[in-house]
């Protein structure tokens, strides 16, 4: 007698099974994390699940900002963060709240590294040196001081002096939260990651923030640690690590001193800000393409690959734990240096629906605009903020995540 076909309940969910398998591979390849069981959502019978008293109370909040060599790259990210900051202020009832109050770790490359340093450097009051709104205002003011939007920070006159004036003697140790900024070190022929955690552990990894910004943004510069024991022959971070999201996630999952209970992607909230993708088909590139054209195209391709890999690693929790904000067709008249035109560009970016990766189904146009994504994630960040405030009886600003994270478990 022929056996009856298996019922729906008896069949495997192929997507879930594929995700379980992919998570094992991804945790090793992308994040360098060996305990693959911590990456699995526990949907398969063979996968052990955590008990309620083992699960972290808090999710680690990560901000990642792509690198780029154009002034607009930092401006677009600053615009998105200024909007997010305004929303968070309204929802928290704190008119002085800053982006750094709602994130536990920040990573930025190139122009994004400069912006991340501005938002996470410690100011005289103990809070971050700049709010997102202030950072956006500073960057937008530079438009009329240069010959158009696309001349960028690379063409700031005496930019090293500007960085020194902005950060004075502040070093990586002075960041209010863990900060990661990459560059490419010609001396070793490998990427180098400036890290607050490393600076805390070893003084030879502590650099002035002004030098960190030069290293991640400059075409070529030599920087030395504060104790002068370490020398970096730096090339811009956009070349080494245009999209630092994977590096930030790796840092959190392996940094057990500051994030002891972050076991996998389900314990994270990640906001990744792109630098804007040019519409190469509509732009007139140099024939043959210039070196700058080639570098930018390569950087955009690598950033997309990282985004896809991260989105795949988050799998079914991608829509709630990870968002990617990216602009497309951000090119505009290279001679247009009118501030209103640039502000209009940032509004256009926020109103776009960008292309996003879908688990095992390629890519599709997002259902939400960038602005709607930010508003949704503001809600998730506020839930996390309120959870910590309720648990600790105080607000979340000015206190390191690691101490609050550990205290909640005592």
Key features?
single chain; about 400 residues; alpha/beta; eight-stranded mixed β-sheet; two-stranded antiparallel ribbon; about 40% helix; about 10% strand; globular; disordered N terminus; disordered C terminus; hydrolase; lipid degradation
Please give a structural write-up.
- The chain is of the alpha/beta class and 410 residues long.
- Helices cover 41% and strands 12% of the residues.
- The protein is built from 14 helices and ten strands.
- The chain has helices at 14-29, 71-92, 111-120, 132-141, 159-167, 196-201, 209-217, 237-241, 245-254, 291-314, 318-321, 339-351, 370-392, 401-407; strands spanning 60-65, 105-108, 179-185, 190-195, 221-224, 231-235, 268-273, 322-325, 355-357, 363-365.
- The strands form two sheets. Strands 1, 2, 3, 4, 5, 6, 7 and 8 form an eight-stranded mixed sheet that branches. Strands 9-10 form a two-stranded antiparallel sheet.
- A hairpin with a 5-residue loop joins strand 9 and strand 10.
- Helix 2 packs across helix 13 (370-392) and helix 5 runs antiparallel to helix 7.
- The protein is globular, with a radius of gyration of 22 Å.
- The termini are far apart.
- Mean pLDDT is 75; it is low at 1-15, 35-56, 147-157, 330-337 and 394-410.
| Overall 3D form | globular
- Count every helix, treating DSSP H or I runs of 4 or more residues as helices: 14
User: Mind summarizing the main beta sheet?
Assistant: 8 strands, mixed
Write down how many β-strands occur, each being a DSSP E stretch of 2 or more residues. Answer: 10
Class from secondary-structure proportions: alpha/beta
Mean pLDDT across all amino acids: 75
Unreliable spans:
1-15, 35-56, 147-157, 330-337, 394-410
Strand content: 5-15%
Sketch the topology as an H/E string, one letter per element.
HEHEHHHEEHHEEHHEHHEHEEHH
Helix content: 40-55%
In angstroms, what separates the terminal alpha carbons? Answer: 62 Å
Computed CA radius of gyration, to the nearest angstrom? 22 Å
């Amino acid at each position: 007698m022929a056996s009856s076909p298996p019922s729906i309940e008896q069949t495997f969910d192929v997507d879930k099974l594929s995700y379980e398998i992919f998570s094992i591979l991804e945790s090793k390849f992308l994040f360098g994390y060996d305990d693959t069981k911590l990456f699995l959502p526990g949907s398969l019978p063979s996968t052990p699940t955590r008990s309620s008293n083992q699960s972290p109370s808090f999710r680690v909040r990560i901000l990642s900002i792509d690198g780029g060599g154009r002034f607009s790259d930092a401006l677009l990210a600053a615009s998105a963060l200024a909007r997010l900051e305004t929303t968070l202020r309204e929802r928290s009832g704190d008119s002085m709240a800053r982006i750094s109050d709602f994130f536990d770790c920040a990573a930025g490359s190139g122009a994004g590294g400069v912006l991340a340093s501005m938002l996470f450097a410690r100011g005289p009051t103990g809070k971050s040196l700049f709010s997102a709104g202030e950072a956006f205002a500073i960057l937008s003011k530079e438009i009329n001081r240069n010959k158009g939007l696309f001349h960028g920070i690379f063409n700031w006159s005496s930019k090293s002096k500007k960085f020194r004036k902005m950060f004075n003697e502040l070093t990586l140790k002075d960041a209010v939260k863990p900060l990661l900024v990459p560059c490419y070190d010609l001396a070793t022929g490998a990427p180098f990651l400036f890290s607050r955690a490393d600076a805390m552990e070893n003084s030879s990894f502590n650099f002035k923030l002004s030098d960190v910004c030069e290293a991640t943004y400059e075409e070529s510069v030599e920087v030395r640690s504060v104790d002068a024991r370490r020398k970096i022959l730096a090339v811009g971070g956009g070349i080494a690590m245009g999209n630092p999201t994977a590096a930030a996630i790796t840092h959190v999952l392996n940094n057990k001193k500051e994030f002891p209970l972050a076991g996998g992607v389900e314990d994270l909230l990640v906001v990744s800000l792109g630098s804007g993708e040019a519409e190469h088909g509509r732009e007139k590139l140099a024939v043959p393409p210039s070196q700058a054209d080639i570098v930018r195209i390569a950087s955009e391709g690598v950033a997309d690959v990282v985004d896809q890999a991260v989105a795949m690693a988050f799998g079914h929790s991608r829509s709630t734990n990870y968002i990617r904000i990216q602009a497309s067709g951000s090119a505009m008249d290279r001679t247009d240096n009118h501030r209103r035109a640039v502000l209009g560009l940032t509004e256009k970016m926020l109103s776009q629906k960008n292309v996003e990766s879908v688990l095992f189904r390629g890519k599709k146009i997002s259902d939400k605009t960038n602005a709607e994504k930010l508003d949704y994630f503001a809600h998730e960040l506020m839930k996390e903020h309120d959870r910590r405030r309720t648990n600790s009886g105080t607000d979340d600003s000015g206190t390191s995540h690691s101490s609050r994270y550990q205290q909640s478990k005592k």
